[in-house]
Amino acid sequence: MFDTLFRKTALVNLELADQSELGALAEAAKQAAKAFKLDETALHASMLASEAQGAQFAGEQAVIVYASSDTLKAPRTLLVTLAKPVAWGSGEGAHAVSQLVILAMPGDHSDEEKQAVLTRIRRKLDAGVPSAAKQVEQFARTLLAE
């Protein structure tokens, strides 16, 4: 019961050992696996497969990183703000990303469900992410709400 009440929904000013898109994905997988109690390797592989299909940018500085897991019963999110922005993508399509939303969905979800959740999160991120740590945590708790 207390695990449900005190779930971690945000990490603020995360320092990356490898200041790259791949480094951010690896650290995001590690942190999300810990927060969601999932296998880190499987989560990371799912995130990489999703990113290979194209990044999901939202707002000015955010990217939504998608993964699925058969272990999950309901969608989960973790909002990560980075201490320093990371170049996401390459060439002219690259974005300076300072916020990652890790979206983990149950493995049996439909594409329509995924798109509905992505649209909801993107709409909220378009309004901007607060900068104060306490406000970031409160904002992160609203990402899956209607």
UniProtKB/TrEMBL annotation:
InterPro entries membership: PTrfase/Anion_transptr, PTS_EIIA_type-2_dom
Coiled coil: none
Pfam families: PTS_EIIA_2
Keyword vocabulary terms for this entry: Sugar transport, Transport
Keyword DNA-binding: no
Domain PTS EIIA type-2: 11-125
Gene3D superfamilies: Mannitol-specific EII, Chain A (3.40.930.10)
Protein name per UniProt: PTS sugar transporter subunit IIA
Organism field: Lacticaseibacillus hegangensis
